[in-house]
Amino acid sequence: MPPQPIWTELQQRRYLKSSAPWRGCTYLLGGALLGAATLVVGLALTAVGAALTLVLIGIPLLTALPLTGIPLAALERRRMLLVDPTPAPTPHRTPEAPGIPAWCRLRLREQATWRELAYAVLFALVLWPLDLLVLACTVAFPVLLVAAPAHLAAAGGPGNDIRPAKLWLVDAYPAACATALLGLVLLLLLAHPLGAYSAARAAFARLLLAPRDAELAAGLAEVTRSRARLVDAFEAERRRIERDLHDGAQQRLVALTMSLGLARLDADPDSPLARQLAAAHDEAGRVLTELRELIRGIHPQVLADYGLSAAIEDVADRCALPVETAGVRLPRLPETVESAGYFAVREALANVGKHSGATRVHLTAAHTEGRLRIVVRDDGRGGADPARGTGLTGLADRLAVLDGTLAVTSPPGGPTILSVEIPCEAETEAEAEMEAGA
Fold this sequence. Notes:
Structural class: alpha+beta
C-alpha cells in the first residue's frame, strides 16, 4: 500500500504501525541539518559579498543573493514528499528565451522568488531550531530514558549512579528498567504530536513554496501561451492557404480565362460554339472574381504587404455604406494583432451593413501608449446584441487570446459603438521588412 499523507495516517488507528512516524522524524531531522547548513552558507555568502564590495566584485554576488532561495525551495518541495506524497509543483515559469540573463530577469520579477527568499531566511533563523527542539522533546528525550539500562551497564552496573536525561539518579537495574519503560511509553505517546508537527511544518512550507494560487496562475499562463501558439499556427496556416490559392488556383483560372477568350476570337461569332465559349468565358470570370474575394477574406495581401492602415482603407472602400476613416495612420504591428484588428473592422462593417440600417459609419484607429484602439461608430437604429450570432462572440474570443477587449454600446435608437483594444508594441522598420520578406 503506497504511503499516505501523515495527516491521513494520524486519523487512523494503525498510525503507530505505519511509516508515518518514521517519515515525520526523518523530515524534521533533515530540516534541522539543512537549516543549519543554510544558515552557515547564507552568512558566509553575505560576509564574502560585503567584503568584496570594496573591489566591486561583491556587488554581483550580493545582487544574486535573492536567487539563493530557489535551490533551497526546490529541495524543500522534494522533502515534502516524506510528509505528503502529493508532488508540490514549482511556481516558476519557463523563460521564453534561452540563456542565464533571461532566466535571471524572469526570476527577479516573479513573486515566487521573493517568497522563497523569505522562506530561506525564516528557515535559517527560526524553523530549523524549532525542528531540532521538537525532535529533542519527542524523540531524543524518550530515547535517553529507554537507554537507561545500557547506560547503567556502561557505567559499571548496580551501585554506580547515573542520571538519565539529567533528571533523577538511577543506581539499580529495576529502576533503570522502569525508566526505560517510561521512555518507551513516552516515545509511543509523543509519536502523535511529532506527526502533527511535521505535517503542519510541511503544510506551512507548501503554503509559501507551492501556493495553490501560484499553481492556478501557472496553469492559466500555460493555457494562455498555448492559445497564443494556436493563434500563431492558425494565422500561419491562413497565410499558406492564401498563398497556395493565389499562386496556384488563381493563376490557373487566369490562364483558363485567357484561353477561352482566345478561343472565342477563333470561333464563328454566330455559331453555337461561340455562344458556348462566351458562356464558359463569363463563368470562368465570375469564378475568378469569387476566388479573389475568398483569398481576400482568408488573408488580404494588402494587409501582409502594407499593414493595417492600408487594409482598413481597403475594407472601408469596399463597404456598401460610406465610411469615414479620418486618415488612419498606424505603424506596423505584430502579425497577429494586425490580423485581429483587420477582421474586427471587417466584421463590424459587415454587421453595420446587414443589421443596423445606418447611412454612415465613422471609423478611427490609433496606436497610443502601447495599445491599438479601433472604434467603429454608426448612425443606425442600435439594439445590437452579441448573443444573437452576429460574429462578435467569436471575435471577442479571438481578441481575448491577445489580451484584447471588445466593447459594444448599442442602445435602442442608436448609435452603435464598437471598441477594440489590443495591447501591443509597434515593430521597428527592420522587423517589419524582415516579416514582409518572409
